Amino acid sequence: xxxxxxxxxxxxxxxxxxxxxxxxxxxxxxxxxxxxxxxxxxxxxxxxxxxxxxxxxxxxxxxxxxxxxxxxxxxxxxxxxxxxxxxxxxxxxxxxxxxxxxxxxxxxxxxxxxxxxxxxxxxxxxxxxxxxxxxxxxxxxxxxxxxxxxxxxxxxxxxxxxxxxxxxxxxxxxxxxxxxxxxxxxxxxxxxxxxxxxxxxxxxxxxxxxxxxxxxxxxxxxxxxxxxxxxxxxxxxxxxxxxxxxxxxxxxxxxxxxxxxxxxxxxxxxxxxxxxxxxxxxxxxxxxxxxxxxxxxxxxxxxxxxxxxxxxxxxxxxxxxxxxxxxxxxxxxxxxxxxxxxxxxxxxxxxxxxxxxxxxxxxxxxxxxxxxxxxxxxxxxxxxxxxxxxxxxxxxxxxxx
Length: 401
Ligand code: PLP
Description:
Helix 8 (193-206) links the parallel strand 7 (176-180) and strand 8 (209-214). This protein has two domains: 12-45 and 317-400, Alpha-Beta Complex (Aspartate Aminotransferase, domain 1); 73-302, 3-Layer(aba) Sandwich (Aspartate Aminotransferase, domain 2). Strands 2-10-9-8-7-3-4 form a seven-stranded mixed beta sheet, sandwiched between helices. Strands 1-12 form a two-stranded parallel sheet. A two-stranded antiparallel ribbon has the order 5-6. It is an alpha/beta fold and 401 residues long. It is built from 16 helices and 13 strands.
């Protein structure tokens, strides 16, 4: 029965993480997977998350009953408020609601399934480059017209806004356009406020559907409100849209799969039908979501002292990343490594799109045991005061070699 099944390609980021684990070299460095690391190179359970999980686990009244199909209300309401703002007119008018999903990936998949099956959408655009799963999720959902829009100017190592706009001008009315809400993965380069305004004007004129992928709220600026600026601007302009939220990075809850799909509508009257169809989609896929991560996020966001502590941890993470950006740039400049390295500090969020080419990446992996994606994307959190000299010297050798 299985004899004709062809082996599929490896998933680069997981293959690199495995290769890193198997590598016995004492100086090995993992700059591939998008997960936060402390300055000691360790995963970080946010202190407020640790305390909250202990308090939830020790609640004698707690149990493991099923959640409703669309998840924990206190979580979806808090998540929707986090991205749209507590004073959001859409929330006040009952035009916005959330459904719990299997982290950000699950939000994207449910969104894609809904758009395809309920709204007959078939055309999707994502940035080039983007998180590599966007294509797969929409293709697996049945979208047959998948396109990329230009986003990155490799020679100047910055956002290619002119060509982004030129490509989106070609999109047909109704096309679903995936936008990274902040801290674009992999380039770390976001549109400015003025550019977002221009995009909103284009979306309105061309009748494009904005689907915001929000996997890094808080990681770009250290302030979740700032990082939601683009989403809130589009909502304020009256768009109907989706936001796919992940709590993997900003709560460090990677494996707990806490996510939310926020739906913004023009009118509260469509809520019951849209909600019911999302419910049926989820029912057919996994019936109901896991509770663990959602309970933690809900308790933290809904308790002012805990929420404040979480905001402090977001600051800790984003400021460590900024320090590493400055340190890496400084070291490459001091070494006289050919090229300009200012983009490393100009970019924001977890990643830097270094501009290293595929053969330079190979040198880093094979000769220096430094693991990064072949596009040259590095996770800044993999750098720390203990390995940054080693990495800078290795980059210098790869570039000059
Ligand atoms: N979207 C982007 C841009 C991402 O980078 C990621 C994770 O790396 C996700 C969505 C989904 O993450 P998760 O499913 O772990 O929440």
